[in-house]
Amino acid sequence: MTESISTGRRHFASDNYSGICPEAWEAMARANHGHVPAYGDDEWTTKAADLLRELFEVNCEVFFAFNGTASNALALSSLCQSYHSIICHELAHAETDECGAPEFFSNGSKILLVSGEEGRIRPESVSHIVQRRCDIHYPKPRVLSLTQATELGTLYSIDDLLQLQEVARRHELRIHMDGARFSNAVASLGVAPKEITWKAGVDVLCFGGTKNGMAVGEAIIFFKKELAQEFAYRCKQAGQLASKMRFLSAPWVGILENGAWLRHATNANRMAELLETSLKQIPGVEFMSERQANAVFARFRPEVATTLRARGWRFYTFIGSGGARFMCSWDTTEEDVNALVHDVRELMQAK
Ligand SMILES: *Cc1c(COP(=O)(O)O)cnc(C)c1O
Questions:
Q1: Fold designation for 22-256
Q2: Does domain 2-18+260-349 match CATH 3.90.1150.10?
Q3: Best of 17, 18, 93, 121 for a ligand 1 pocket test (most atoms within 8 Å of beta carbon)
Q4: Tens-digit pLDDT profile for residues 93-131
């Protein structure tokens, strides 16, 4: 680890391995002047929320929290009572990587899992799970939680979302979106952010900043303002109300005011595209899902992964044996991708 810090090598393990982008860093420096009111009553926080309202072209309620787990858990808990349930994909971060935080903060709302190819939930699965039990003895489905981009690096198209909105409306489900990689989704789909959020029925979006060049900080955006009632208390109770809030909000100003959020996401996506195209030229490399955002899921002989690690590459192999996830970041370069591809090619050719 120390070695990788000193050499400054970039990895493909996760987009949170990367550092802070210049725009966020510079905004934090700009915010670091004098004394300003605490707990969000400052100009940076007002400005960041205004920029988000501009970006989404709607009058929404905006909050900032330290990380994605808290954002998801608190947003979800504001959408349901303890006797409700939350429908999400079996690979959803809320299920697999939040240590039960959604259940904890909602005082016991049950998570109902559905499977779905390439990380996406299908409308039929939602109807099926809702209709499976409609009696008083089972938690009442209340929320549909979608991840955009998904945990398998795929996307929900506008059409997918409209179909899910329809099924959600039919069953009176609210829609939560885990947007840890929302920027990558927008960059890849080439749509206005509103098209894949409130215009498709999303009630709350957890918009990730960390994985797109910020040190910390996610924005929780309520498109249905009444759902945000007393949400500030939830944040405070959960230890998520930053007292020096300007340092959580200023980076948002930095990445939003000049479009850096989209440039960085576009770079990460392009690098993943390059990685996918290059790996496809290596005989024997297989792919686990279609690349649409900044992740490539590839499969090769287990010993290849071991040797890549021995050469210092970092990546996750948590899904399927022999499967590796390569995640590109805002600062991944073509040289990084080429160096990785070079090593994979060499190891695949050595029998
Ligand atoms: C990274 C990530 C989060 C946020 O995780 P934290 O470590 O709590 O910030 C949420 N959802 C998804 C899909 C993620 O990949």
A1: Aspartate Aminotransferase; domain 2 (3.40.640)
A2: yes
A3: 93
A4: 999 999 999 999 999 999 999 999 999 999 999 999 999
